Amino acid sequence: MTRTVTFSFCFSLLASVSHLQAQPVLRPATFRSDAQMVLVPVTVTDQRAKTITGLRMQDFAIFDNGASQQIVSFTNDDAPCSIGLVLDISGSMRNALGAAKSVAHGFLKASNPEDEFLLLTVSTEPEETGRFSTDIEALEDNIENSRSEGMTALIDTVYLGLNRMSKAHQPRRAMLILSDGIDNFSRYSESELMRAALEADVQIYAIIMDSGSGGTVGGGAPFRPSLAAKPWDQARQRQGPLLLETLAEKTGGISFHVKKESEANDAAVKAARALRDEYVIGYQAPPTAPAGKYHRVRVKALVPKANVYARNGYYSQ
Questions:
Q1: What does the alpha-carbon distance between residue 269 and residue 108 come to, in Å, rounded to a whole number?
Q2: Which DSSP letter does residue 16 get?
Q3: Which residues pair with 52 in a beta bridge?
């Protein structure tokens, strides 16, 4: 009997522990290559980032390592999702935190009522609030009570979130990151996070907020910590937003850059709709690929003026 698995083949995460430094590295489960179906969540938007609905199986083409694949399953259901909500409350977000909270509330309001959420906050150390829950009122209270403080361990927090997704109850899993992209206190590297993201069955969405001065989301002067545990890395500050963009691109999510609060709220609704309006395309994995080989996947929408967002690769097992 053919086993159907999610796009990243339901990579299992080792049991998490209470401290970040003791977290396991993400490791894939083992499956027979001749019994794998690859399921690819796909979002299609127009030029204004609004999702395009009503497409059919024949409106898509999919390629595995450049070879065209026969689509054998196709769905477009507004199924509930498990979502890790990563809220940056560090000092660099002092001027934009109010807008970030508003964005989080807007996203929750536009999401599927059956979605479950886990809140993680970014500061000197990653913190998670409770467990996955459908109690939106309690989640909103936790968000509203958050205060801006500390350094920024953004990479560590996203890494922690990917590990915690192993405890999610829904087969569809996603992460929404609300941050300016700055990281100045993480212990994990960008490459370690990228590897973990590629192995996890989680779509990453990012709303990258400008926390600078004059006319931006928060207004006021950018935060500059006077005491840092390590030198301020200007290059890493510039690379932060790029890392979030790349995480979204490679995992099939969408990233948004916002400078005004109205743009941020619009991005929150678009991110929620993108999750609810996904297509899921299935094809049989090539049976001869050696274990551990990375497959590049490309999804093409055969309709004009369409942008396609889908995870662009997986490791065969």
A1: 9
A2: P
A3: none
| 115 residue type, one letter | D
Q: Do 24 and 163 meet the contact criterion of CB atoms below 8 Å apart?
A: yes
Q: For residues 137 and 164, is the Cβ–Cβ distance under 8 A?
A: no
Mean pLDDT of all residues in 35-55:
91
Vertex 135, ends 132 and 136: CA angle to 5°?
105
| Residue 190: CB atoms within 10 Å | 17
SS3 of residue 227 by DSSP: coil
119, 239, 250: which is closest to 195 by C-alpha?
Answer: 250
pLDDT at 236: 53
Closest to 85 (Cα-Cα) out of 119, 110, 116, 114: 119
Q: Helix 190-199 crosses helix 154-164 at what angle (to 10 degrees)?
A: 20
Distance CA 84, CA 120 (A): 7
pLDDT at 1: 42
What DSSP string describes 146-170?
----S---HHHHHHHHHHHGGG-SS
Find the radius of gyration of the CA atoms of the chain: 19
Angle at 306 between CA 303 and CA 310, to 5 degrees: 105
> Tokens representing 16?
């998490």
Please enumerate in sequence order all residues whose Cβ is within 8 A of that of 153, keeping only pairs 6 or more positions apart, or say none: 90, 122, 123, 124, 125, 126, 183, 185, 186, 187
Residue-wise burial string across 42-52, b where 16 or more C-beta atoms lie within 10 A, e elsewhere: bbbbeeebebb
Distance CA 171, CA 196 (A): 18
Structure confidence by residue, pLDDT tens digits, 136-165:
999 999 999 999 999 999 999 999 999 999
Which residues are 51's β-sheet partners?
Answer: 45
Characterize 195-225 residue by residue with b for buried, 16 or more Cβ atoms within 10 angstroms of its Cβ, and e for exposed. Answer: ebbbbbbbbbbbbbbbbbeeebbbeeebbee
SS3 per-residue string spanning 42-104? EEEECCCCCECCCCCHHHEEEEECCEEECCCEEECCCCCCEEEEEEECCHHHCCCHHHHHHHH
Helix, coil or strand: residue 111: coil
